[in-house]
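Field: sequence (string)
Field: structure_tokens (string)

Example rows 1 and 2, in order.
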Amino acid sequence: MENRNNNFMNKHDVQVRLIKELGIDFHVFLSDKKYYEDDYQKIKESIVDIARKTLEETE
């Protein structure tokens, strides 16, 4: 693993950075339908899985 400096981000920092760098706020992908808890969990799990796979590939 690379040597990390003392810079860190909290979850708000990460959210803002993703919006700035990727130009995507995840709400833009949602349609005007009713979402239930299981819909939300599936969306969240998909985003987390993609992020996890990406991080594993960079280690």
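Row 2 begins here:
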Amino acid sequence: MPLRLLIAGYFSVQATAGALWWGMMWLWPASRSWFWPTDTSNSVLLAFATADLVCFVGGSALAAFMVARHHAWARAVLWLVTGMVSYAALFVLASLIATGEAPLAAALMVAAAAGTWLATTCYRV
């Protein structure tokens, strides 16, 4: 299997996982406590939904599409998504450091940022 299809597959899985995660947050509110410090209101977590759905889910889906089709702008989209995922990872990591809570969120986002960076650096035009 060509490397670019593996990379496209990674971003497809990431987009799907992000969409499922937000679905879980919406449909099963009790799960929010696993990913968010206890002193933070649910409205703050849900305020991230729009940006996360557009940037993380939509960006990953767009990256998968462009890489699979070997689009000329695929590399630019990959680096844009890498930046967006890294920003989210830094946010939840800082939240973990500040509160000592929600280590699962930090672990998942740091893993996503590392995977995104690796996939992006492996992509060849």
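free_text_note (row 2): The two ends are 16 Å apart (CA to CA).
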